[in-house]
Amino acid sequence: xxxxxxxxxxxxxxxxxxxxxxxxxxxxxxxxxxxxxxQAQGKEREFVGAIxxxxxxxxxxxxVKGRFTISRDNAENTLYxxxxxxxxxxxxxxxxxxxRFYNIYGPQAQYDYWGQGTQVTVSS
Length: 124
What we know:
The chain is mainly beta. The protein is built from no helices and eleven strands. The chain has strands at about 5, 10-15, 20-25, 35-40, 45-50, 60, 70-75, 80-85, 90-100, 115, 120-124. The strands form two sheets. Strands 2, 4, 5, 6, 9, 10 and 11 form a seven-stranded mixed β-sheet that branches. Strand 7 (about 70-75) and strand 8 (about 80-85) form a beta hairpin. The radius of gyration is 13 Å and the shape is globular. It starts with a strand and ends with a strand.
């Protein structure tokens, strides 16, 4: 079992930055693949990025590549999403998720645990 809690969302101007955090409980955090997803109003939830258990491998959606960076601190059981050069199109509720499978390219169905989400709003 794992419990995930996102934080760090808010209202920012276009071009600004935010860093989201995902605090995890449970003793197996350091073995999980971790992912970030987002869902805008009226749209399907979409993949943002993922990171493997060690933090050595990452993958990003084309829409955020070069602007967003995923990292993790296994000693603190925390996942991060650094978001730079934010655009109004990034406005969404952001979710972190944990998977027991070692596959950073896996589908959403692979993820076993989900956080409650944190809202990011980017004004133009």
